[in-house]
Design brief:
Elements lengths: L8 H15 L2 H4 L17 E3 L2 E7 L2 E16 L2 E14 L2 E6 L3 E13 L2 E12 L21 E11 L3 E11 L2 E2 L2 E2 L3 E10 L10 E13 L3 E2 L2 E2 L5 E14 L2 E15 L6 E12 L1
Antiparallel strand pairs: 1-3, 1-18, 2-3, 2-18, 3-4, 4-5, 4-6, 6-7, 7-8, 8-9, 9-12, 10-11, 11-14, 12-13, 13-16, 14-15, 16-17, 17-18
Length: 284
């Protein structure tokens, strides 16, 4: 006697979507969150072009960065390197400044990956160096600076989970800031927890939407001037950041806004009003 097993239409669709997602080139369609760090790397020989626009505002300063030269290259299937160069605009009560910002070079290595049916888990490490290449005004001016004025090193560790419906990312970064003219900019620790949901199962070659919600924390240490600790420097800020990731084939749009939900800055400092980001991605 032969027993027949029936599969519901919904189950069959989910199985088909899972097999399709597994068969698709994962490194070509994977992405990182908007503000946090993810383990995404470019496939071997691949190129990612990702211009972005960053905007921020506080009570004392308004700024925009146009990252017109954001390019990544896949050295191999797990190792990516890239370059970043923004055009920066800053404005405060004393005037405006604009020009090329600080040049950044980075590399990311994915050291662990586990694939399942419609599921990918991975971890990666990041090294980024931001060089002091932006134009500076005269030392006596109170106009905003276009860059940090120092050469800074960023180390990061990140985990990511991608499935048919759910996304999860977690990351930690340590930013070691440099010295300039006797001033030491305080180091920073950044922690990110991100969740995402795909409300509609993906269909090959059709647009795909993932909604994101990030929790971004930043802790800055006191800086110093001539080895004397600066009172009005450093502290903690926490942001809740809704966003989205819209993808079609090898092109994606990512956008989000950081809204402050907690601030404990040292001394007298202006709190962040908001930060926003819009990023375009092409995988070639």
């Amino acid at each position: 006697m032969i027993r027949r097993t029936s599969i519901s239409g919904k189950s069959a669709c989910m199985m088909a979507a899972g097999l399709l997602l597994l068969a698709m080139p994962r490194d070509a369609m994977a992405h990182d969150p908007v503000f946090g760090l993810g383990p995404h790397v470019i496939y071997e020989g691949g190129v990612e072009i990702s211009p972005e626009l960053d905007a921020s505002q506080s009570a004392s300063t308004r700024g925009q960065d146009l990252g017109f030269l954001n390019v990544s290259y896949g050295i191999n299937a797990d190792w990516t390197a890239g370059i970043e160069l923004p055009w920066t605009f800053k404005e405060n009560a004393y005037g405006q400044a604009n020009g090329l910002g600080d040049l950044g070079l980075f590399t990311k290595y994915r050291f662990w990956r586990k694939d399942g049916l419609g599921v990918v888990d991975s971890m990666a490490a990041l090294l980024k160096v931001k060089f002091d290449t932006s134009k500076r005004g005269a030392p006596t001016t109170a106009k905003p600076a276009l860059g940090t004025g120092t050469t800074d090193v960023i180390l990061g560790l990140t985990y990511g989970h991608e499935s048919l419906k759910w996304y999860r990312w977690a990351s930690i970064r340590y930013r070691r800031n440099g010295h300039s003219s006797g001033r030491k900019v305080g180091d920073k620790v950044l922690v990110d927890l991100v969740g995402g949901i795909r409300l509609t199962p993906p269909e090959y070659l059709k647009p795909d939407m993932v909604w994101l919600l990030e929790l971004n924390g930043e802790y800055g240490r006191h800086g110093s001037l001539d080895s004397v600790s600066l009172v009005n420097d450093g502290g903690t800020e926490l942001f809740l950041s809704p966003g989205f990731m819209w993808t079609v084939r090898n092109f994606a749009i990512k956008a989000g806004v950081q809204l402050p939900v907690f601030s404990n800055l040292n001394g007298v400092q202006t709190k962040t009003d908001y930060r926003a980001k819009l990023e375009l991605e092409w995988h070639l």
